[in-house]
Description:
Elements: H1 7-18, H2 25-53, E1 77-86, E2 93-101, H3 121-130, H4 136-147, H5 155-173, E3 182-192, E4 201-210, E5 215-222, H6 228-240, E6 248-251, H7 255-264, E7 269-272, H8 274-282, H9 287-300, H10 315-332, H11 337-345, H12 361-364, H13 368-381, H14 390-405, H15 415-428, H16 439-449
Parallel strand pairs: 3-6, 6-7
Antiparallel strand pairs: 1-2, 3-4, 4-5
Amino acid sequence: MSRRVSPIEAIRAEIDALFTGDRDLVEVLEDVARLGARLIIQTAMEAEVDAFLGRARYQRAGAAVDADGQVTARAGHRNGHCPTTVKTTAGPITVARPKLRGTTEKFASRLFGTHVTRTHALEALVIASFVRGMSVRDVEAALADALGPEAALSKSTVSAICTQIAGEFDVWRRRDLAGIQLDYLFLDASHFKMHDGHAAEPVLAAWGITTEGKPVFVGLDSANSESTDAWHGFLTDLADRGLVSPLLVISDGAKGLISAAEQVFPKALRQRCTIHKLRNVLAKISKDDQETVRAEFWDCFDTSSEDLMDIEPGQRLVEAVQQRITAFIGKWAGTYPAAMRAMEADRASLTVYLRFPAEHHKRIRHSNFIERTFGETRRRVKVIGRFPGETSCVSLIWAVLDRAARGWRGFTMTPRALRTLQDLRRALLEPPTPLYKTPVEIATTIEDAA
């Protein structure tokens, strides 16, 4: 008689079966995340039961002895399983909780407690290591370190996952971008440990809002720094693959990024992230005054107040907010001169967004959206500590951001907003050809002809 298939073996069979069909990889990964969580939790609970009883599944009590020949088995035996729901970031999953009979003391899981309801580091480990593009050895080592060798997956399964992840990312990073026309381009970087013995290194990211108001994940790549050369290479690659100039580039104040953006997309306007600037200012303010300064900083940009609410987006609105910034700097310059010098240095680039549709203002005045997604990436990979290499790092971040991108919210494009954007597009990207040349242009034409 064949023995009954254990819950662990059943889950492994389900995972292997996912890669035998022709389903879309994105759908497969979602299922792998859930099944992976089930596998880890199930393996952990079964291993705890083995330790509690002092013997493995199907092992006789008399056969469980230590090095001195002493029987290690405890009274009691397994008595099937009962379904239990566990909450994870991949959604609620059902595991088979082992039941015991005839024990002299009650079994309680040290990993999950008496009642399994929510996972902690384990489900993060599943999403970070099990699903996200690391090598076979890396995945097996991460799982074994956390839960013992029984938690390791079959090499064929891990290899299939890693190969498909790497292939999908390679296709994505080389795709043609000529069909994407952006109004807004957001640029940011986050640092991750990729190489042993080296400090954290940046991963550069770009996402945008199309002329239809749809969000799109545009580009991702690693770099050894946030220098002008690094950002210039990243943005040039996007342009070489067909990405045309956006109307507005939103970024933090990194000088290399700003310089590269101005070189690659010289016709686009640039908005300095207001949240990053606020952090710069508050870093030079005493704790006693930080809340007051924070509130007054945001008051400068409040266009819903009675004195500004009737002013249409454009130069008049920019000038009105600049007057508020002047008053804000004047109020605090005597107490915090360094903070107000930092504010003064970027004041012009803080109000560029006011030329764009009013309904977009609160979402285009900062680049915090993709920064929050980077934070989610860091949270999920925290259990790893350091990536085993650059390829694994970028593949992981791409997988997390690519999943997140499917839930990103677009922009509302009202008729008035579309008119404003079209006027800006004509002015910035499609300026009319002058009817008459200036004397300097005529002289240049004559010199070129000669």
